[in-house]
Each structure stands twice: as C-alpha cells, then as structure tokens.
Amino acid sequence: MTRVALYARYSDDKQSAASIEDQFLICREQAKSEGWHVIGSYKDAAISGASVILRPGIQALVQDAQMGRFDVLLAEALDRVSRDQADVATLYKHLQFAGVKIVTLAEGEVSELHVGLKGTMNALFLKDLAKKTHRGLRGRVEKGKSGGGLCYGYDVVRRFSSEGEAVHGERSINAVEAEVVRQVFRQFANGLSPQAIARRLNEAGIPAPTGTLWTSTTIRGHAKRGTGLLNNELYIGKLVWNRLRYLKNPQTGKRVSRINPQSEWIVTDVPDLRIVDEELWQAAKARQEDIAVQYAGVIEATRAAHNKLNRTRRPRSLLSGLVYCGCCGGSYTLRGQGRFACSNHIDTRSC
To answer: What are phi and psi of 201, to 5 degrees?
Structure first.
C-alpha cells in the first residue's frame, strides 16, 4: 500500500489555526479515495510561504523522506508547500532523489512543469502583494498614521470610523513612557553612557520596550538606520517611513535590512506626537556627534575588522549556542580569547 504524508500550512495571524485542520481533512479524504495509507502529517503554523528554510515542519518532512518513511507527499496546493520558486525547485529535487512524489489537490501530481510555471506565478504574486502593501502603507503614513509597529512612548488608538470600520495607524502619547523617554535623553545629554542609563532603568524596575530588561543597544541603536530611542525622530514629531528595505538572505532565509537612499524616505510632520523638545533633542545629537568624532578611529578599525572577518566567513566556535548560564539561563558568548561570559551579566547586569 502506498504510504502518504500530509503537509499543511497557514501563513499569518489573519488566518485561523483551523485552516490547518481543514487542509488535513480534505487531504485525508483524498488519500482515502486513492487507497493510500496516511503515515503522518507535518504542519507549519503562522509562517510565511516565502521560505522553507526556517520552517520546522518542512525540515522534518525532508528528513523523513530521506529515511524512506513515505512514498507520496500530499498537500492542498503547491503554494501551501512554498511560494518561493527556488525553494520549490530545491524541495522537488530532494524528494525526487528520495523517490517521493508530490501530489496536490489543486495541481495533481507535480512535475517539473508545475515547479517552473507555478513557481513563477507564486513569485510574481508575492512581488505584486509586496508592492500593493507598500503602496497602502505609504498612503497611511502620508496621512500622519503609523505604517506598522508601536514605538515606545505611545499607545495604539482603537476606534471605528463612522462607517463602522476599524481605523488603523493612529497613536497617542503614553504619559508614563514619555517621561522615561525624556529621562533617557536628559541623562545621555548630561554625559551618562547608554549602558549606565540601561542599568539605572533596570534597577528602577522600569520595563524595556520588549517588556524585559533594557540594554545599551535599545537606547543607543544605530544612528543611520534610525533605530534606538536616541534616534527615533517620532519623539520630535517627525514620522519617518521607508528608511529601510528588507531582503531575504538566501543562505539563512532570514530578512536583512538595507538603508534606502534618503530621497526615498517618506517624512510626515506629526506635532501632536512630539515628546522631546528641540533643545533636548539637539543636546543629545551634539553628544552623539562628539562621541562619533572622539571614537572615529576605533569605529573605523572595528568596521574594517568586521568586514574582513565577514569576507573570510569566520567559523563558529565549537561551543556556539550550546553554553548557557547556570544561574539565569542566559546564553554564554565569547568575550575575549578563549573566555566565555554570561551575556545577561555583561549587557544588562541582571545576573
């Protein structure tokens, strides 16, 4: 009897978890009608179809296929497996080598023709969807509304329009968090380092934007990328959007940010959302510039060293990702030649 494995996926929070069970239900009915024996099922919940690299369900499926545990992979449609053309082709080759057929309810038995044509169509669909989403977000930002995400110091305004539809992108100032933002700016302008400020906030029991502990990078961020509290122009009533674009690293499947040309940035004045006055903002910027000048040589040398290491693809340490602190459970990282230390102790002093 033909052994079949089922695969189902739903992409994001807009779809219900019941979608996976619905996919399994119709796949089981198809397997029954074909007289196939279902030996197992694999699923990926709330994960995009743009890459298979980071999907545990697909990874487990490929491993079991290589071990000869099933003969057919059955899914609702090819785009449930992946919308990435290269990933579909690679998966198809792996399963072909393992002697496993891909069958979907929408396309039937998948061949090279399906992989090429359907893969191209799915890639075009993703590109078109991204353009439409980008266009919609730009229109929202130009009206002074958030393009997504929630900055520290603000609350989401939940209300409905006169037509009864939810209004998205509106924010209001959170008075408690706004005072913390001003406190951070004052302390930095007065000479405290981001690490010292983070330590004070943690000692005072003030939660970070993530709800955990503050770190120096949360405050310092990256000036050119506009990240970190000290670089967020929304605090002076300027909504900056499209500063960054994101590309998928084909080796890891993870998104990597790139800075867009300043001519492509969308800047909208939102004076009602201003938290930091101009004098305090300029004082913080002046100190950032002084630090950049003071440590220009060190920064340049560090960047050069990092670029050199990246070019040579520095190998991971033998214990990378395997050593954890016995006190707090935090990860241990290399801190110097042959020395490991608790990251929580170094970064947040919480251990």
So the answer is: -65, -40
CATH number of the structural domain 178-314: 3.90.1750
Contact 70, 40 (CB under 8 A): yes
Distance CA 284, CA 232 (A): 12
Contact 134, 128 (CB under 8 A): no
Mapping DSSP onto H, E and C, the string for 132-163 reads: HHHHHHHHHHHCCCCCCCCCCCEEECCCECCC
Closest CA to 78 of 37, 54, 109: 109
Residues 258-267 have pLDDT tens digits of 999 999 999 9
Closest Cα partner for 170 from 140, 209, 135, 210?
Answer: 140
In 3D space, the residue among 138, 156, 153 whose CA is nearest the CA of residue 236 turns out to be 153
Structure tokens at 173: 């100032």
Closest CA to 95 of 52, 64, 126, 141: 64
Q: Which amino acid is at 183?
A: Q
Predicted confidence (pLDDT) per residue in 220-279, tens digit: 999 888 899 999 999 999 999 999 988 877 666 677 889 999 999 999 999 999 999 999
Q: How far is residue 197 from each of residues 8, 26, 220, 229, 248, measured CA to CA in Å?
A: 47, 56, 10, 12, 34
Decide: helix, strand or coil at residue 303: helix
**The domain 3-124 is classified under which CATH number: 3.40.50.1390, 3.10.310.10, 3.30.70.980, 3.30.700.20?**
3.40.50.1390
Of 81, 79, 65, 74, nearest to 25 (Cα)? 74
From CA 230, how far away is CA 221, in angstroms rounded? 7
Domain coordinates in residue numbering, the chain: 3-124, 178-314, 315-351
Structure tokens at 158: 């939940």
